Structures are given as structure tokens and as C-alpha cells.
Amino acid sequence: MLQGKKICFIGTGNMGEALVSGLVSNSTRPEDIICTDVRESTLTLIGEKYQVRTTTDNQAAIQSSDIVIFAVKPQILALVLKETAGCLDMSKLIISIAAGVPLAAIESCLNKELRLIRVMPNIAAFVKESATAIAPGKNAGKEDIAMAKAIFESVGKSVFIDENNLMDAITGLSGSGPAYIFLIVDAMADAGVKMGLSRQDALFLSMQTVLGSAKVLLETKEHPGQLKDRVTSPGGTAIAGIHTLEKGGLRTTLINAVEAATNRSKELGQLMIKHFAENGLNK
Q: 196-213, pLDDT tens digit by residue?
């Protein structure tokens, strides 16, 4: 799907590097990848590590590419889009991974027809286990979506979201989700220490328990409730623990957390639309 395609990354920070690593390890030729960044030291390291092409010239990188991935911080994306607008047209697939920036914001900034796709990966891309959502703009075709999936499935698993307005929910669930899990792992480790385990052992057991549980869910494809019932013996330890979690409102708290993060994503998205419109090509 990506064979022969030239891919450029505008901004090669942590997420950009994770994607470069995934692509190179999945048979994309390093010479077909070009990375840009304002920091020459970063480009030197990326070039030496992955043998990809590098430059500080965003426009030159875009002009020589078929797929353009904007991986800059959301706060500066409008300025970068404005700088590179003359190089962006329907001949290129344009992907944004800027968190909290709706496609409507990008469209209001550029004010031109483009093959746009918005993607929401998460921090697990660093270990090639990202849960990623892909939402296309109105001009993105089936081949464009397939290419986006090929890129992001080099760092994990992806889902296709037909409606862009659902990306806020994706942000609240899987985009922000690792933070919830990190908090849970930390709390479980604290509990182990309280019960007499060493910090090192408690943290390891907590992490491995979460990893193993997720793998069981993925491989068995059983409903979480069914697996929970298999672990809970009548009058046993697990049901005693679950009773305490339910009494403390864990389920409700997690639902509220996803809802709060989703609503915050919507708020930030509206601010971004206003900001991008104010900094668009007609300004």
C-alpha cells in the first residue's frame, strides 16, 4: 500500500519519531521518508538512527512527498499550515495528528480543497501498541484511508471513525486513556506496598497484571464481564475486592473521567477553530 510513496513528517518530536520507527521496521525504505524539525540536533539524531532524509525546509519536504504528516504541536499548527499552504494541494494526502485540532479548524485556516485525514494515536505508539482512530475529511478516498491505516498500524492497532465529531470521544477514551491506566497501576502498586510488598515487586506485579488482563481480553475476545465472572469465586477474594471497587464508585468515576475529557476536547476544538480562522490565509 505504501510502496513507492514518499512520506514526510512536518515536526519530528516523540510521536513523529515513533511513527518513523514503526514505518522503517515495517519495510518502508528510509530513503522514502523525509523529516523536518526546527531543531537541527533532533534531525541529526533521527537521520543517524533511522537513515531517513532530513531538512529544516518544510516546503521542500512537502513538494517532494506524496503523504504529508503534520506532527507539530497544536499551538503552532496554524502558523505551519499558513507557511506551507502553497505546497498543499489535492495531489497529496495530508494527515494531522495534532491533538484537539478538528478538521474544520484546518479547513478554515487553509480555505482550499484538500485530501485531509485526522488521526488520534496515543502514547503507546512508542512501544508499537497505540490505539489509534482515523477520521477522514470529505475529499479523502478509500485508498487514502487505507494508506493512513497502513502508517498507523505500524505502531499499533487502528479503528476507522466515519464521523469526525466522534474524535472528541476518542480523545477522552483512548487518547487520554493511558493516563487513567497509569494512575490505576500506581494506585495498585501503592496498595501492594501497604500490604507489605516491596515497591519494586508491587509495581512489577501491577504492571504485568494490567498487561496480562488486556492480552486475555484481546485474544479471547470475551466480554470483560464474562472474564470478571470467571475470576470471581463464590465468597472469594476477587468478589470482595470488586465489591469495594463498586462501593467506591470506580465504574462511575471512570465513565465520568472519559466524559469530562471528551467535553474538554470539544471546548478546546472550538477554541482551535476560532484561532485557526483568525490566523488563516485570508488574514
A: 999 999 999 999 999 999
- Please check whether residue 171 is in contact with residue 100, taking contact to mean a CB–CB distance below 8 angstroms: yes
The domain ranges of the chain are 7-167, 177-261
* CA dist., res. 154 & res. 151, Å (int): 6
Distance CA 2, CA 150 (A): 7
Domain 177-261: state its class: mainly alpha
* Strand order through the sheet with 93-96: 53-55, 33-36, 7-10, 67-70, 93-96, 115-120, 130-136, 156-160
Kindly tell me the burial class for residue 219, based on how many C-beta atoms sit within 10 Å of its own C-beta (0-12, 13-18, 19 or more). Answer: exposed
Dump pLDDT digits (tens) for 155-176: 999 999 987 889 999 999 999 9
Question: Under CATH, domain 7-167 is a member of which superfamily?
Answer: NAD(P)-binding Rossmann-like Domain (3.40.50.720)
| Lookup: cell for 58 | 518544510
